[in-house]
Amino acid sequence: MGLLRLAIPSALLLWFLWKARSNALFLLGIPILMVMRGSVFFENMAPFWKPGRLDPVTLIMVWLTLVWIVTVARRSQSDGTPVGLFGAGRILPEELPLIGIAVLIGVHVVGAFASSGDLAQAAGQASGVFYLVLGYVLVRGIASRATRAETEEFLAAVVIANTVACGLFFLHQGLHLPIYLGEANITYVSGGQAITRSTTFSPVLNLLALGFVLAKRRWTPGWMVVLAITLLAILVSLTRTMVLAAVLGLVIAIVVRELARPDFSRFARRVGAIVASSVIVVLGFSRIVPAYWSFLLKRLGEFTSAGGHGTQVQNWEVRAVHWAAVTRVVARIDLLLGVGFARSGSVTVNPDYYNWTSDMTWVPIIYMLGLAGLVLFGLLLAGFMARALTLSMKPPELRRELCLAYFITLALTTVMGFQMWTFMQPTVYPMGLWIFAFAAVEALRPAGEPEAPAIARTTDTRDLVPS
Predict the structure, then answer these.
(1) Separation of alpha carbons 127 and 102, rounded Å
(2) Closest alpha carbon to 289 in 227, 160, 197, 214
(3) pLDDT digits over 97-147, tens only?
(4) Which of 145, 137, 202, 134 is nearest to 26 (CA)?
């Protein structure tokens, strides 16, 4: 297993670097693999985590910046077409909330500096959340230098990497093979049998994988396998919200496709394919890991049962209690603008807050940035979802697929925001909004873009896309 834990991240890294020779967008795979580190053993790639005195989020930011520098340099050498450092100069309406978020962060930094007199400390406390904004800007600049075809090629590679993580996760959690090191962080007892959940090793890009595959106009056998493995990983995670999100993704994929070009026969074929695929996956899951299937049904049953007194339903009630507690703390300080970026252990920080942020995206937002931040992030999500949905109904077909993938991903991210911290996870701040940046680039890209205005020559995606 030790060799496997080194071979997998090495192979993925070499694959992305090899593809980057002709499509420099693949260099973005480095920070993405760093975000995926727990599920594909990328923490074993020691050179990317040096110097050790820097925390992981700063190191991801450093590598993202290096990728941006290299991409900008390659773009200027290969094509004279003017492209700004951060992509097209025009600011989209849906990007305005992000500017508001940056201003709000700046207000807190100024306030902290005025109180402490230490500018370095004030900026350092806000650096993590600021990386969220800076990361978006850098990814926007990187992605704007790729063609639509190169973007699809890169996203396909990311989805395949996530599929590898899904397969490993299913083998570890479902079949109890010792793939990952460490103990399960959650254990239930059902029918006298221990049911373990190892959320630490969960694949982190399942929402993108669902969006990317479901958005395709035609499903090849290869992509059906990718979807099946992703769904198996979602089922074995025992996360009810993720299961419901997967169902929602299936519904969106059917409905939006028909809104764009209504055709009953195609609609019937697509529904049939989705239902048949889902049934096969569920039947396979119930036969391979019957104990997990029974426990998942129990969880879903408690959620829908009359009265809702099951243990698992109480998780939602606990989240509501935590939300109310955090809101009360913020209200005593500044409900409109939030507490800011005080460190754990300071007078203003509720000691339980840091244990609750992983349960809901909106908890850290209202705590740090108040109602203003909550509204701005809501507008950010709504704006990008509306843009992606609109473009998903317009030709050409590749734009339809990409934008539908972005819409499904963002819609499911919104749903999962009530169960986990999604883009507000502190250890992935620099890459928290990368799908937003890709959606913005597509909105600014002309429908009939030139043949190859990219970093390098356009590659044939058939060597990468499953068939």
Answers:
(1) 11
(2) 197
(3) 999 999 999 999 999 999 889 899 899 989 999 999 999 999 999 999 999
(4) 145
d(CA 356, CA 201): 19
Q: Hey, which residues does 190 pair with through a beta bridge? A: 193
The residue among 40 and 198 whose pLDDT is bigger is 40
**Of the listed ranges 263-267, 388-392, 433-437, the one predicted with least confidence:** 263-267
Q: Which amino acid is at 395?
A: P
The pairing of strands 186-190 and 193-197 is: antiparallel
Yes or no: say if 275 and 157 are a contact pair by the CB < 8 Å rule. no
Candidates 25, 58, 29, 26; CA nearest to 42 is 29
Q: How many residues does this entry show for the chain?
A: 467
- Close Cβ partners of 222 (under 8 Å, ≥ 6 residues apart): 465, 466, 467
Check whether 162 has a pLDDT greater than 70: yes
- 3-state class (DSSP) for residue 463: helix
**How far is Cα 352 from Cα 344, in angstroms, rounded to an integer?**
10
Span 60-70, average pLDDT: 97
